Each structure stands twice: as C-alpha cells, then as structure tokens.
Amino acid sequence: MKKRTLILLVPLLLLATAAEVALLVWTLGSARDFVTTTWITPQKLNQHLTAAEEIVEKDDWDAAIREFTEALVIEPQSTDAFIGRGKAYLEKNDYEHALGDFTAAVGIDATSAEAYEWRGYTYTLQGKLEAAISDYDKAIELETDADDPSVYERRAFARVLKGDIDESIADYDTAIRRKGGEDAGLSAGRGYAYEQKADWEHALADYDTALRLDAKDAKVYAARGGVHGHRQEWEEALRDYDEALRLDPADAEVRVARGMVFIEQGKWETAVTDFREAVRLAPRKFAGYNSLAWVLATSPVAKIRNGTEAVTLATKGCELSKWKLGGLIDTLAAAYAETGDFDQAIKYQADALQLAQADAKETTEMAKRLALYQSHQPYREPPHH
Fold first, then answer.
1. Domain boundaries, position 320
2. Phi and psi dihedrals of 375, rounded to 5?
3. 145 exposed, middle or buried (CB, 10 Å; 0-12, 13-18, 19+)?
C-alpha cells in the first residue's frame, strides 16, 4: 500500500507548483497532528493512567509515580495525572512533592474540587491548618456531589486540630448526614472533637456508636478508655485499655495510659510493668520514660523507688523531647530529689517552672515541689486506692 501511494504521489509532485507542494505537505502534517491529538495522545494517556491506578491497588507507590509521570510527559496538562501522582507521594509521606502536584492541578483547572480537597489534606498533614481550611472551603464551594462526606470530614479534622471545636462538630454532623446515617469513623472523629471540649457524655456516646459499628478498632477502645479515665471510672477504663491492647499489643501509648489507671488504683508494681513495656515498645518516644521515672522517683511505696534509675530515665525523656517540656523536666527534678541531690533538683525545678508558666494549676504544683526541694525533702505521690 505504501509503494502504491508513493508511486501515485511522485508524478503529482513533479507537475505541482512550489505553492501546491507546500499546501500538500501542510495538509498531510495537519492530518497527522489531528490523528495524534485526537486519538493517539488520549489513548496513550489513558493507558498510563489505567496502568498507574492498577499499580496503586498493589500499594507500589514508586511504580505508580513513574506511570503518572509518563502520563504527564504525554499530556503535561493532565489534572488526573497530577492528582494521582500527588496521592502516591502522600502515601510516601512526601508532602512537598504532593503539594506541588496538587497545586499544579489547581493551576490547570481552578474548578477542580478534588484538587483543592487533596491540597487541603496535604496542608493538614503539614500542620498548615489555615491554608487547609481555606482549600476545603473552596472544594465545598466547587463540589458537585451532594452525597460525598469526605471534604466535610477532612475539614472537621483540620478544625479540631486548630481548636475550632464547635465548627468541627458541625462538619462531622454534616458528614454523617451525607453518609446517610451512622458511620464508625465519623462517630469516632466527632467523639474526639467532643473530648477536646471535655464533653465526656457526648464523647462517650459517639465512641459507643463507633464501637458498636466496628468492634475491632483498637484506637477507639483506647479513646473511650481515656474518657472513662477523665470520669474516674477506673474499671471501665481498664476494660477498654485491656481490649485495645488485645487488639494491638504493640501500642506503647495505651500501655502508658493503662499504667496511669493502675496508679489511681494503687497498683504501683503493675503500673511499673506497663511503663517498662512502653519503653521497650517505643524507645524513641518520651512518654514511657517519663511515666516510669516519675513512679520510681515519687511512689509512696519504698520498694518501688529507685532514684538513680529515675534520673537516667527522666534524662532520656528530656533528651527525646529536646528539653522543651516542663512536665518532663519536673520529673527529672523529682528524680534528683529522690537521690538526695537537692541542688540539681532545685535547678531543674526552676527550669520546669519557666516552661510551665502558661498553666496555672501545673505551676502551682511545681512551686510546691520546689519549696520541698529547697527544704531538702523529696516529693511523694499520695497513696491511691
């Protein structure tokens, strides 16, 4: 077929004028561009996008990023490719590249609610809450799916982190309505918001709902245990922490929380066991070190106390927190007091007071301990029952 076409074209070209030849070449080029733009390019783009989505299902984020990048080589204005690649970067916790891709998508299509929503989510993960809420507002303004709860759920989370608790609860209410009724994740999220305003009753009701709908969520058991703890319902708190640890035995934070309940019940040795396990499970987190050091320094039970070990543990906790938390330095001061080194105890207690000035109740308690150390007396926790 190619030979025949060429044979037919040659005599025509010999007879044609230069202008006619130019017109023929232009026409053939335009036809080629038309085929490339309207058929070949979209087909190749869709092939790469489809391949990328299939790879995403396998959680192979690097391979997905490569496929989305290939799609962008073919069509640099593809919002789908930018959004898809941005999501893959998020899965790798690469917030800067994700933000760049979502911003590019917004630049290409300023009416894309999806691009604004995902950029808002990235801002949330970066702690840029004002920017996140602004993008969520824009996504809500542009959205076309009146049944999709996701953007309201994400704005609710950003708002609770920002401290706008009532607005967060209102967003969770809207998300739940859009979902068509009860939802485990949304109920848990709203429960957390209620918890931040110390509305224990509503928080407990939402956590109850979440666990009725999903009885295998260890985090929600732990959260409900915390609410019971605030209400001084120690047995209920222990049951929830026990279940959370049954579902997720490696959760160091729950070990610490359960240890605190054991202290309230006067079970010092059991508390020490939980705190030691928390240190083992999370050696790069300060909570276990601090809690264990506090008990070893201040327990009313003499056989529990060990000032030297408490100093070591408390120092590690302060190092992990970069010496920025007054409560941890307060523990170090108590540990030095237990060893009888009251000069160090006084020094660190003064440092702790400097860092805790914003909390009047905490400052009052720290000042009382400073007075004890100045009188060469260690601090003792009152007996718990």
1. 284-385
2. -95, 10
3. exposed
C-alpha neighbours within 13 Å on the C-beta side of residue 225: 26
> Residue 76: phi, psi to the nearest 5?
-65, -10
Q: Considering the domain boundaries, does residue 172 fall inside one? A: no
Do 285 and 320 touch, CB atoms closer than 8 A?
yes
Q: What is the pLDDT of residue 49?
A: 85
* Each residue's pLDDT tens digit, 225-252: 999 999 999 999 999 999 999 999 999 9
Copy the structure tokens of residue 367: 């000042």
371: Cα within 13 Å, side-chain hemisphere: 6
Is residue 275 within 8 Å of residue 292, measured between CB atoms? yes
pLDDT at 168: 98
The CATH number of the domain where 126 resides is what?
A: 1.25.40.10
| 3-state class (DSSP) for residue 243 | helix
| Separation of alpha carbons 288 and 315, rounded Å | 12
**Domain final residue pick, 143, 171, 187:** 143
Kindly give, in sequence order, each residue whose CB lies less than 8 Å from that of residue 384, ignoring residues fewer than 6 positions away.
263, 264, 265, 266
- What is the arithmetic mean of pLDDT over 172-185? 94
The mean pLDDT of 280-292, rounded to a whole number, is: 98
Residue showing tokens 């054991």: 262
Structure token digits, residue 305: 């106390």
Q: How many domains does the chain have?
A: 2
Q: Are the C-beta atoms of 72 and 78 separated by less than 8 Å?
A: yes
Q: Which two tokens stand for residue 8?
A: 């037919």
Of 88, 122, 143, the position where a domain reaches its end is 143
- Say if 54 falls within a structural domain: yes
**Do 84 and 66 meet the contact criterion of CB atoms below 8 Å apart?**
no
Domain-embedded: residue 196: no
Q: Report the chain's terminal Cα–Cα distance, integer Å.
A: 97
pLDDT over 90 (residue 189): yes
* pTM summary value: 0.83
**Does any domain span residue 241?**
no
Query: Looking at the chain, how many residues does it have?
Result: 385
